[in-house]
Amino acid sequence: MPLKVLVVSALSLGLALALSGHGVAVAATVIELTQTPCQFLESEGGVDHGYKSARKADCDKINGDTGETRLAAAATMTLKPGKYVFRVTNSNVPYDLGFWLRGDGIINRATLPSVSGGGLAKGVTKDYEIELKVGDYVYSCPLNPTPDYKLIVVE
């Protein structure tokens, strides 16, 4: 399952850009992410490793054993500055999940925007809105421990 970025059509984008100068809000780009036990599918090239997890500790162990190798193989998401909605789905994890996107490292965490939230029960999808600025970010789920996947925002 490759990363899904829902792109606004050129006509719609042109209209949105024309209206943005007149105080009309510009629509955000939607990034879809799917959580399965201990991972985000799209972040790992759509590969579902088939992990089983009944609680956080299961993923702590799995990612302790495999997370570094998987993260090294994961593609870094690269985006332009702007408004985004990260649409996160709990596909089949039997406990509540969350999502946390923040600056990578102490300085970036203090200076770049962040978004987080929980309440993603099995089968639930939630939207996390953020306006990204240029910089280095990571995103993960602390409740369904996943690796810290990389996201870079460049002009």
Provide structural commentary.
With 155 residues, the chain is an alpha+beta fold. It has a single domain, classed as Cupredoxins -  blue copper proteins (Immunoglobulin-like), CATH 2.60.40.420. It is 23% helix and 37% strand. The strands form 2 sheets. Strands 1, 2, 3, 5 and 8 form a 5-stranded mixed β-sheet that branches. A 5-stranded mixed β-sheet has the order 4-10-9-6-7. Strand 2 and strand 3 (39-40) form a beta hairpin. The two termini are 27 Å apart. 26% of the residues are buried. Residues 5-20 have low confidence and may be disordered.
Key attributes of the depicted protein:
155 residues, alpha+beta, Immunoglobulin-like, five-stranded mixed sheet, 3 helices, 10 strands, 37% strand
Helix content: 10-25%
Please state the oligomeric state of the protein chains shown: single chain
Principal-axes shape call: globular
The CATH class label is Mainly Beta
Fourth-tier CATH superfamily name: Cupredoxins -  blue copper proteins
Order of helices and strands: EHEEHEEEHEEEE
- Termini separation comes to 27 Å
Give the percentage of residues in beta strands: 35-45%
Mean pLDDT: 88
What is the CA-atom radius of gyration, in angstroms? 16 Å
* Strand-pairing-aware structural class: alpha+beta
Number of spatially distinct domains:
1
CATH architectural arrangement: Sandwich
Uncertain residue ranges: 5-20
The number of helical segments is: 3
Biggest sheet record = 5 strands, mixed
How many β-strand stretches? 10
